[in-house]
Amino acid sequence: MRRLILEELLGTRHPDATFHDSELEHLHLNFSAGSAVLRFRLCISAVTEPEAYASGELVLGGLLFFAIEPPSTPRPEWSDEPLSIISDGPLPDSNVKLSTSLPTGLPDNAFCHYLFSGNTNSFIVLAATEASFVWHVV
Known about the structure:
Blueprint: E1 18-30, E2 35-43, E3 53-61, E4 65-68, E5 83-90, E6 111-117, E7 122-128, E8 130-135
Antiparallel strand pairs: 1-2, 1-5, 2-3, 3-8, 4-7, 5-6, 6-7
């Protein structure tokens, strides 16, 4: 299994862009195609006030695993809001305590990654073989 750092997919369009403090607005899983598209608003300004955001999509191909932990916060804290992603990283990671088990026997070209939502206090875990990021044109 390989390690994937999501920020490496963002290119040079927004040099300070990061998934940290991003907002996950939409998720589309296509089981027939083995793909997923996650639409984000990414923080693109580490130093400006107020923070600036730009939209784009994380596109996953060769989808092998996708799990979302149940929210551990009451619904009023996260309903009608995007998921606030406050942390992400490659798996396995001994510092990350998941309620789900990672799949075994993933191919060598696969990666496994987590996103942690602060407003639901829960993890999204995914494994795939392909990943790209496409910025929306404004």
